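WARN no homologs supplied; continuing
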Amino acid sequence: MDKKVILITGAASGLGKTCAEYLAKKGFIVYGADRKVPACNSASSQPQVCEGVAMLHMDVTQPETIQAAVQTIIDNHGRIDVVVNNAGMGIGGAVELATPEEIALQMNVNFMGAVNVCNAVIPHLRRGGGGKIINLSSIAGVMGIPFQGFYSASKFAIEGYSETLSLELHPFKIKVVLIEPGDFATGFTAARIVSEQTKNSELYGEKFNKCLSIIEKEENGGCKPIKLAKVMHRIVRSKRPKFRYKVGNLVQTNFARAKAFIPARTYQKLLRFFYNL
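OK structure emitted
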């Protein structure tokens, strides 16, 4: 059989980069897309290949760049078998103090970015007789994380969107999978945008700074990205993947699972205790 053709967004760094390189080593045809990759001015130029991954320019908030990247893959292979919506970013700050620009940026990249990519790829998956869409959610898409409110909101949105997408695409043999990572040690922590207004706020500043230090400590001590790459490899190879995968250390993943059984008031109390609120 022909090798599966895989597109991974946000593949220039972090989880996306590790997953793309791992899948390429396993023999798949992997295209990585990222806004950090320079745009190609020549339609005939082929993407640069690094560690077996062909890198394409794509900004998930700009549909025209998505269409161009997808068309390059279709021109080269005639199909796409798997798309991984991994591109994302984080903004830390109090929900009350978030600016309209911060909210729009967070939701446009993390949520609408995945929607834009799916809209571009689904027709090709359908014409190819099926395939897989793997959407990266987060443990923060299962529980609200303090001072990461709109990051959580964007991931909760991914959850609901993916549930509906799975139902609607079932007749076309397109499987939708959610991955809910816990904390992983990547460049995500250093790249987080921090709200200066919250940081300097008399109301929230002290709590925010303490909470952010806890969050960063957990992230920097998180799992290695290869752990998630191996799970993604299993999903890509599986004929009948599960809809939802929680990936990370056992404490975090089990706590996320426990939300279904622990009373909401108790669950909130445990979160306040952990985040020193």
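The beta strands are 5-9, 29-34, 48-50, 53-57, 82-85, 91-92, 131-136, 174-181, 193-194, 244-247.
OK
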